[in-house]
Amino acid sequence: MATAARSYNDAIDALNSLQTPFAVIEARRKAGIRPDAASVREMRGYLARIGYSSQDLDRLNMVHVAGTKGKGSTCAFVDSILSRYQQQGRRPHKLGLFTSPHLIAVRERIRINSAPISEALFAKYFFQVWDRLEAHPAIAADADADAVAPGTKPIYARYLTLLSYHVFLSEGVDAAVYETGIGGEYDATNVVDRPVATGISTLGIDHVFVLGPAVETIAWHKAGIMKPGCPAFTVEQVAAAAQVLQDRAAEKGLALTVLDIDPRLAGVRIRPDAAFQKRNATLAVALAETALKRLDPAFSPDPQALPREFVDGLEQVVWRGRCEVKEEDTIIWHVDGAHTVDSLKMAARWFVGECAARDSAGSRVLVFNQQGRVEAVDFLDGLCDAVKRADPAGKGFEHVIFCTNVTYAATGYKRDFVNHQHDPADIAKMTMQRVFAERWSALDPAANVMLIPTIEEAIDMARKLAGKEGAPKVQALITGSLHLVGGALGILEGADAL
């Protein structure tokens, strides 16, 4: 079949076939099989099979960001700053951004000049990569290509990473911001040998099966993106993580710069106005300055004040699904993807602060899910406690809804949301949600706790809890996984991509 005949939906269906089934994931977990150095060798092999070497990636002038909390926000800040220069006809002339996961459409992960690539462009390049992997191109003689069997393809997230390289190189991108997926050392993005700069945002406990249960092992993985001869930056870290980062920097023969909050941010409207976001902005400023010095020899940072382009980039950044407020006639939605203990506490404090700033606020509703992560039940304690502590009267949520990540009541998942990595039986039985409900009922017996099968029905229920027009508006917080947040935004806005 000709490439032109294959649509975006065809591409998404083919991509979904690359997901690792739940049963395989469980078998690997039980066997203790984790990503290792072979994962990066394989990515280099796939890169060779589609016609590129790691040296080709140098043309992207990559800014590479890892971390537990704030890496996505940091990438969004860098992209927003650099886009101000791009819009003025200065370098970068074409700007790429690669992030994960997507909120509504897979193509959101691969952006050019801050916009998701079109469905047509996604399909075109998707099948070019697909066909090259099946056709065994001549460059397969490259030594790296021997790391993968002819005709094979990488799994879902790695395929998208491979696709991003092909898109950006084909489209003439001359600066790209890359967010790691999980970790750093063995991440699919870690095949670039000479990034313009690397940044490590705040570290914490997450993805413990892959990265280990301690912040030291997590820091070891994240530090893997640092490269000799390439400027490396981080922000204030807990002592154990900070030491590991410095040790790994020393091993690689580079100096790691630890950044205090940039005093030039005084007077810049960072949202939310919190220390954690100012740390992300500080890291982004250092990364953007370093990238611009590479791209434009005439660029020289001002140690006393940020240029207008930086201020505008920081203040006008658009990063969907994080600290968003959407108002309807009878309900105000607060939407914030948060998937760690600390980020959920921050989401809770942000939510209560937003509610307190309003003269009249109605009852509070929580919509939450975090699918397939058994440790997620322990996230609830901090979320519940943070809301009560931040509330002057010590009140929690009056209504708490636990749902799955299934999008629609009638049709199930949107194509871009299909996920084979979770046990379908657990989703159907709402196994995880029942565990959540039991824990919340113990934490706050006064709360009205509900189990609702889909995101669409959870949103409908929250609206039903709202009073008539003119009554104090219900304050709803949608938080947890970005899959939940993305599905919710898609329903609230009727949007196909963000």
Automatic annotation (TrEMBL):
Molecular function (Gene Ontology), one example: tetrahydrofolylpolyglutamate synthase activity
The name this protein goes by in its record: Folylpolyglutamate synthase
The organism's taxonomic lineage, starting at the top: Eukaryota, Fungi, Dikarya, Ascomycota, Pezizomycotina
Keywords associated with the record: ATP-binding, Cytoplasm, Ligase, Magnesium, Membrane, Metal-binding, Mitochondrion, Mitochondrion inner membrane, Nucleotide-binding, One-carbon metabolism
Pathway: Cofactor biosynthesis; tetrahydrofolylpolyglutamate biosynthesis
Species of origin: Trichocladium antarcticum
Sites where the protein binds Mg(2+): 100, 179, 207
Annotated GO biological process: one-carbon metabolic process
Cofactor: a monovalent cation
Catalytic activities: (6S)-5,6,7,8-tetrahydrofolyl-(gamma-L-Glu)(n) + L-glutamate + ATP = (6S)-5,6,7,8-tetrahydrofolyl-(gamma-L-Glu)(n+1) + ADP + phosphate + H(+)
Catalytic EC class: ligase
Cofactor mode of binding and number, as noted: A monovalent cation.
